[in-house]
Amino acid sequence: MDRLLTDMTAELAAVRGQVEDRRRAQATDFDEYVVARYQQLVRMARLLTQDWALAEDLVQSALVKCWGAWGSIRSEDPTAYVRRTVLTTYFAWYCWRRSRPERLTSIDLERPAVDEYSVVENADLLDALRALPKRQCAVIVLRYFEDLTEAETAAALGCSVGTVKSQAHRALRRLQVALSAAGQADEEAGNR
User: Fold this and answer.
1) CATH of 120-192 given 1.10.10.10, 3.30.200.120, 3.40.50.10490, 2.60.120.330
2) What is the pLDDT of residues 75-112, one digit of tens each?
3) Are 138 and 163 in contact (CB under 8 A)?
4) Would you tell me the crossing angle of helices 52-67 and 2-49 to the nearest 10 degrees?
5) Could you report the per-residue pLDDT of 30-76, keeping only the tens digit for each?
6) What is the DSSP letter of 69?
7) What is the pLDDT of residue 112?
8) Topology classification of domain 1-99
9) Residues of the signal sequence (predicted)?
10) Which residue spans of the chain are classified as CATH 1.10.10.10?
């Protein structure tokens, strides 16, 4: 009986050691992934949210969600999974914020002197992106800024390739109209 108890204790200790080794390896793997992809994810989120601080919060929230399932995520394509998590978190935040609008009244938050996540320096383009419906904005960001294929964009958004094509077409048309109007306004202001 003592021998059986000693053997079981030894086996349990060995299993615990293996589990701890896996956890350490998973933590190291996750840390390496975050270091390698964080800036890219924040850039994507920055284009979606138009706000550098909100973009960082969005990416961090998505990464927290991914940490719990990292072992199974890592066996697949982790970037696609994390990107999808960022997008679903973004859409959830957008719905939540729309139902509970927050307005800063007497606080003027300073932006950093250098926006390290600045991807687009064209203010008219950023304004036009901001005016797009959230789904169309996500399609444009994924297709043209993240350089994903139509199939990869569809997988990230959880829709069909046809939906990506139609949303991209509509968004590009809206962007063209908005940028043409902004260009005309700039031209008229220059003529004055």
Assistant:
1) 1.10.10.10
2) 667 888 999 999 999 998 766 555 545 544 444 444 44
3) no
4) 160
5) 889 999 999 999 999 999 988 888 899 999 999 999 888 887 776 66
6) T
7) 47
8) Rna Polymerase Sigma Factor; Chain: A (1.10.1740)
9) none
10) 120-192
